[in-house]
Amino acid sequence: MRPVGPRPIEGIRGSDLWTEVDDYVSNLLVASDPALEQSVIDSRMAGLSPIHDSPNQGKRLQILRRAFRARTILEVGALGGHSTIWMGRALPVDGHLHPLE
User: Fold this and answer.
1) Mean pLDDT, residues 21-47
2) Which residue has the higher pLDDT, 8 or 77?
3) What single string gives the DSSP state of each residue in 9-56?
């Protein structure tokens, strides 16, 4: 018997569908943020790889920080600092964030 997987939607590749779902949820639940938008622009201007967290991924990082009650975060591979902003905002006032590249 052949395994059953998700059925393709005509005209939409799998990655395109997930991008659309991610964009929809982000637009619905996460407000636009000038600091995060600027970090993407600055990274592009500096010639860095166009890699950054989606708003959903950033929120997930914040939820994980709170769930584990982390007071110190070591970020390995900070690149343009996009995820650094997300995690830093989730830390308590006396928390510490150590980004490394």
Assistant:
1) 90
2) 77
3) BTTB-HHHHHHHHHHHHHHHH----HHHHHHHHHHHHTT--S----HH
The Cα angle at residue 47 between residues 60 and 17, in degrees rounded to 5: 45
Show me where the domains of the chain are located: 34-100
How far is the C-alpha of 45 from the C-alpha of 8, rounded, in Å?
Answer: 37
Mean pLDDT (whole number) for 39-56: 90
When comparing pLDDT for 52 and 96, which is higher?
96
Answer for the pair 53, 61: CB distance below 8 angstroms, yes or no.
yes
Q: How far is CA 49 from the centre of its chain?
A: 15
In angstroms, rounded to a whole number, what is the distance separating the alpha carbons of residues 44 and 79? 11
Write down the pTM of the prediction. 0.74
